[in-house]
What we know:
Helices cover 38% and strands 16% of the residues. The chain is of the alpha/beta class. The chain folds into 2 domains: 5-108, Enolase-like, domain 1 (2-Layer Sandwich), CATH 3.30.390.10; 112-364, Alpha-Beta Barrel (TIM Barrel). Strands 4, 5, 7, 8, 9, 10, 11, 12, 13 and 14 form a 10-stranded mixed sheet that branches. β8, α8 (242-248) and β9 (253-255) form a beta-alpha-beta unit. The longest helix has 22 residues, at 84-105.
Amino acid sequence: MPVTIIDVITILTQPAGSRLIVVKILTSEPGLYGLGCATFTQRFHAVHAAIERHLKPFLIGKEVDAIEDLWQTAMVNGYWRNGPVLNNAISGMDQALWDIKGKQAGMPVYQLLGGKCREAAATYVHADGASPAEVAENVQRYMAQDYRHVRCQIGGYGGRKPRITPPEGAKSGDYFDPRSYMRRTVKMFEHLRAAVGDEVELLHDVHERLTPADAIVFAKQLEPYNLFFLEDALAPEDNEWFRRMRQTSTTPIAMGELFNNPAEWLPLIEGRLIDFLRMHISQMGGITPARNVAAMAAMYGIRTAWHGPGDVSPVGHAANLHLDLWAPNFGIQEWCRFNELVYEIFPGTPEVRGGYMYPNDLPGLGIDVDEKLAARYPCEDEIINWTQARTPDGGPARP
Ligand code: MG
């Protein structure tokens, strides 16, 4: 008797700032279910509707076995495809089906992918500060906890609190000064290398805050500080500029948390124009496409560094971890340090000790959800301010 999908539940919860979306697929086999991350925190209602009104009716009655077939057919069932809302909904399905398959096999998902290349995934954490000295203190605090990789920002993305005077009547927004941010960040890394030495790996996220011309100068200016990687130096819309960056700088490049579509990452991999893949796995459609792109990138000498902030649910972090343990070309895993409440709501949330993220070796993704507790922290509606970025003259900018 084939096992079929009998229900799809969308779990929305906000225990730690970010609105999280998790899909639970119930099957015809009593007690057998799977969980998947569908978190698109800024547009969670749209993903919720896509799951409840479109994906769920499509899935009810289908056999759970055929992950690949369901991924392919779900992706084209709406005809228009590769957008963030539907990709996240499909990821919820995809990860839940991998979880179910692992439970059926009695194996962790990394075993289904091909087994472990490593016992744990090296992680990096985020250090910020208002001054280079404060950032250095925070880096040293992480080093004392045995983290060997730290992302360093000064004043958040774009280096906030610029001394700027917008024109009279300028609109409100999250103002930043791109060129001031460049100068302050270069000085920060100069200070950090003197303060924390060469043995800790330092990373930085530009968050697409620079023009392409400035981003190319910036990658060159950071060369002396030997970054582990420079992230999102360019926006996906400016992908073509990576060729110029490659020609002028040796700084390793990480890219991809905003990618939706294979057409965005294929040329960068084929051209060997980046060094690390940063995709948000639910945003690209789940474990199935992430496995495929990781395997392809391995052939080009490009490593993985999957997106791992607080707006990836613990289920998504578990999916990241299974890919990390398997991928021969794993590079690094971003880690957001969830609070205790998140661990209570999602038993089996990956644990990090000494800078390494460890699996629990339970079958499937090895994670569960306490739905009653999750429901006590409902998602709140909010107009998001930090994505209303503006440059000094008041013009709109990418966040
Ligand atoms: Mg980023």
